[in-house]
Write a structure and sequence with these properties.
Blueprint lengths: L4 H6 L1 H4 L4 E4 L10 E4 L13 E5 L11 H11 L1 E6 L10 H9 L4 E3 L6 H30 L9 H12 L3 E5 L4 E5 L4 H4 L3 H5 L9 E3 L4 E6 L7 E5 L6 H21 L6 H14 L4 H10 L7 E9 L5 H8 L5 E6 L2 E8 L2 H13 L6 E10 L5 H13 L8 E2 L6 H7 L4 H15 L5 H14 L4 H7 L4 H15 L6 H21 L5
Parallel strand pairs: 2-3, 3-4, 4-5, 14-15
Antiparallel strand pairs: 1-5, 6-7, 6-10, 8-9, 9-10, 11-13, 11-14, 12-13
Length: about 525
């Protein structure tokens, strides 16, 4: 949006004069805020800051002209460059002037053909006014984009998406440990976040918006002044630096205020890790997974362990995640009632020991189930492993919660996969219909009796104990069930069929969200 000296020299009206940069050719990207024609040898008090001076060189022919003092007066007065058109009064630039400009690294441009200075000033000033208007429009768009910071829609992802759209460049949010928490903009995650922690460490954190590092990153801090918790980064050089600065600073303010107003118990870091894990559930290419996982701090390892947990009660997700997550792993909330974590480990044996140690460290009454998958050897295998661990954690299993894998589920795992199949529903209804069609509360009592019997392993002692009945009363209850169903519960095939039907009925209710009868 801002006009530079290079831009002015490339204007058709100026290019017609065949300009040649005689000094400080590497400094022509300086911004130009105005253009002024002057033939004075001492310009003190006549210029504004960031002005480009145009001249035909009359002052250079005056007796006693001091080139060094002239260049110094230009710079001190706020000039950023001098364009000279030699002609009737001046055949060529004085060598003393060229040498003085080079010594001061002050841009000096010589025109080889005639240029109408009045046309140059009109065009440049029109461009500057237009650029100023565009900056105001951008500021207005930024205000509109970030003004709803208190709403639920202004998550970090939304803020970054607005910022990247406004400046047309990728934007990354990282924390103080150089973990990339969120990103938006053009380009793939694999290319954008490649070797992110190592690259980020080459750009020291600063208290102000600035450009630094070998790649010319533009960075602005995020968080209250005394509690900076991260920064926004544009990992690319911007030709519109002032505009990008303004947008980045507004985005940083939105993130800071949003963090102060948030009511979610999850931190930005955990939200970012959860975003990656949720994306993994839906499949992701290995390059993107690797780049995002590394950028979030997951170390490279020979193996990876995958764990999914279900809390006992809703709202315990953050507490459960804090209990299972280690310093070198990443974790997040997949959905209400599901927490996942991925850990690096050195071997298959180390994976087993690590997960057993993690599960053992979870306080009693916090977790209802633990599902594990793996170990996996490549990050590209994480999506399938995560889906498997979710399946294992979702399958209801009797007894105290402990670490389970797919091989531990047995027929319960099979019935879980088939829980929505119509043939399984038909089988379940055919086996249990006489009980389920009884009026309440008789239906619930009858079903609870049958479930207690099959879950006791058909042991009358355990069955009576489960229902707190005497043995005669327990036998009487079973006789009632046999009569209602019209079956013989001593028959092995009958027991197997009813056991499967009870398990399938429980999975069906779990899938629908309804409580089992």
């Amino acid at each position: 949006m801002h006009l530079t000296l290079r831009d002015v020299l490339e204007l058709p009206v100026m290019a017609a004069g065949a300009p040649v940069v005689r000094s400080a050719a590497d400094a022509v990207d300086v911004p130009v805020r105005s253009v002024h024609v002057s033939e004075l040898s001492d310009v003190a008090g006549t210029l504004t800051s960031d002005v480009l001076v145009l001249s035909i060189g009359r002052a250079f022919t005056e007796p006693g002209f001091d080139a060094v003092a002239y260049v110094r007066s230009l710079r001190d007065a706020g000039a950023i460059g001098l364009v000279v058109e030699p002609g009737q009064h001046l055949k060529s630039l004085p060598d003393a002037l060229v040498q003085a400009a080079r010594a001061a690294r002050f841009p000096l441009v010589e025109l080889r053909s005639t240029v109408r200075f009045i046309e140059v000033t009109e065009i440049v000033h029109a461009r500057i006014v237009n650029a100023h208007y565009e900056r105001l429009r951008l500021a207005e768009r930024a205000h509109e984009a970030f003004s709803t910071v208190g709403s639920a829609s202004q998550a970090p992802d939304a803020v970054l998406a607005h910022a990247a759209d406004l400046i047309g460049l990728p934007v990354v949010l990282e924390d103080r440990t150089h973990r990339a928490l969120a990103f938006a903009g053009v380009g793939s995650a694999e290319s954008l976040l490649r070797d992110w922690p190592a690259r980020s460490r080459r750009v020291p954190f600063s208290a102000a918006t600035e450009v630094g590092g070998p790649e010319g990153w533009m960075c602005t801090p995020v968080g209250p002044p005394r509690e900076r918790w991260g920064r926004l980064v544009v990992p690319a050089r911007s030709a519109e630096q002032p505009a990008a600065w303004m947008v980045l600073e507004r985005a940083a303010e939105a993130l800071t205020v949003g963090k102060l107003l948030e009511r979610s118990p999850l931190s930005v870091e955990i939200e970012a890790q959860g975003d990656l894990l949720r994306d993994l559930l839906h499949g992701a290419d290995e390059g993107s997974v690797r780049a995002r996982a590394r950028a979030l701090g997951l170390a490279a390892a020979a193996y990876y362990a995958v764990l999914v947990c279900r809390p006992v009660k809703a709202g315990q997700e953050r507490a459960l995640l804090d209990a299972v997550l280690t310093s070198d792993g990443i974790g997040g909330v997949l959905a209400e009632g599901r927490v996942a974590a991925v850990f690096p480990c050195s071997s298959a044996a180390a994976e087993k020991a690590l997960l057993e140690r993690v599960v053992a460290g979870v306080p009693a009454g916090l977790a209802a189930a633990f599902g594990a998958a793996g170990p996996v050897r490549r990050l590209g295998e994480l999506p399938a492993a995560l889906q498997e661990a979710v399946h294992v954690a979702d399958v209801e299993s009797p007894g105290a919660p402990g670490l389970r894998r797919a091989g531990d589920l047995g027929v319960r795992g099979l019935l879980w996969w088939l829980r929505e199949h119509p043939r399984l529903h038909e089988f379940t209804e055919a086996q249990l219909r006489p009980l389920l069609t009884l009026p309440e509360p008789r239906a619930s009592r009858a079903f609870a009796t049958l479930r207690a019997f099959v879950e006791s392993g058909y042991s009358m002692t355990e069955f009576a104990k489960a229902l707190n009945l005497s043995r005669p009363a327990a036998y009487s209850r079973l006789a009632t069930i046999e009569r209602l169903l019209g079956v013989d519960l001593s028959d092995p095939d009958t027991r197997l069929s009813l056991h499967l039907a009870v398990l399938a009925h429980g999975h069906r209710d779990s899938a629908s969200g309804a409580p089992a009868q």
